[in-house]
Amino acid sequence: MKRFIAPVLAVAAAAALVAVPAFAATKTAGLKDNSFVPKTMTVKKNTTVKWVWKGKAPHNVTVQSGPMKFRSNTQTSGSFSKKLTKKGTYKLHCTIHPGMDQTIKVR
To answer: Where does the record locate the signal sequence feature (predicted)?
Structure first.
């Protein structure tokens, strides 16, 4: 019996060492009526944030400050996604609408 268990345990241990890709997390935020919804959010590192345009006014997603810089196109519909690979606090805004801000904390 011991001869059988040792090889099985060895195979199980080797299988545990094989990296299995984790499912990537995605969080969704909206842009509507000159506001980001939600206004603040906290996500884990390597989360993809997807912003969805829900109103008729044109908006963009622009990083004002944070560990990564990015900017979406100005649009009235559709979506924009970005994988946040660096920890820190991201301050975002729409360059068209003063006061239209969002804060994302990446842990």
So the answer is: 1-24
